[in-house]
Amino acid sequence: MKKAIVIFLVVLGHEAGAQVRHMLDSIKYDLKQKREWYICLDGKNSVIRDLQTKIFGLQYGYMYNKRTNLYVNYYTSYNTQDQILSNPTAGYNKRDSNTVFVSSKLTYMNIGCEYYFMNTRKWRMSFPVGIGIGQGRDETRTSKKYLGIDKNTVIPIDLGYTINYKIKWWVWAGAGIGTRLSLASNRYNGPYYYMGLSLRFGEMYNRARAWYREQ
Asked: pLDDT (tens digit, 9 = 90+) per residue, 173-212?
């Protein structure tokens, strides 16, 4: 039984390695082919310090050979919730003037690559990978006064999986999940997910320009 498990793991590792090598070879090939620029909004739901957080983003990049994206993102978070940092006098599940709250905000830019391992006329599935640099901010306060701010450098790595369906040439429906791991400050690590519609502004611009030139 142990021998069979070892053989299975060896075969599985070999197949996984072959798939990764194939993906890298495909990306190298794509980067030498025709490219098209694009720009889109990139919003996510995430978790920072165990609190639900909205992350708003703007992405600009190029798609090569209709299969590989290289892009730059700018992200900033928005959080309407505060977390209790200390509660020395109010007691369990209560708050008073001595309760200290902390609110976190994350802002960063990253560069990334997204490879569509499935890319048909209607469906796209991909593995986006990005690395960036930015700043996390933790502001502390009580109900009566502002206490201060703690700033930390973050070097986040974003790893994810996405699936998209083309409704029309200018709008896609999509969903994705992933995780964010920071090399500099792990307090901003957390999973993320998204669901929604995305507009293809680059394609809109290209078609409008082509139409204008024909007039």
From this structure: 999 999 999 888 788 899 999 988 887 777 787 788 888 8
Q: Using CA atoms in the order 67, 178, 195, 46, what is the torsion angle rounded to 10 degrees?
A: -140
> What's the structural domain count of the chain?
2
Q: How confident is the model at residue 7 (pLDDT cuts 50, 70, 90)?
A: very low
Look up the pTM and report it.
0.79
24 and 69 both lie in a single domain: no
On the question of pLDDT at 130 being above 90, the answer is yes
Exposure pattern of 55-86 as b/e (b: 16+ CB <10 Å)?
A: bebebebebbbebbbbbebbbebebeebeebe
Burial class (CB in 10 A: 0-12, 13-18, 19+), 209: exposed
Asked if 118 and 200 sit in the same domain, the reply is yes
Same domain? 89 vs 7: no
Going 142 to 143 to 145 to 146, the CA torsion angle's sign is: positive
* Range of the structural domain that residue 106 is part of: 35-214
Asked if residue 54 and residue 92 are part of one domain, the reply reads yes
Give the residue, 96 or 57, on which the prediction is more confident.
Answer: 57
Instruction: Tell me the two tokens of residue 3.
Output: 């021998």
- Report how far Cα 61 is from the mean position of its chain's Cα atoms: 15
Tokens of 117: 């391992």
Alpha-carbon torsion 205, 73, 47, 88, what sign?
Answer: negative
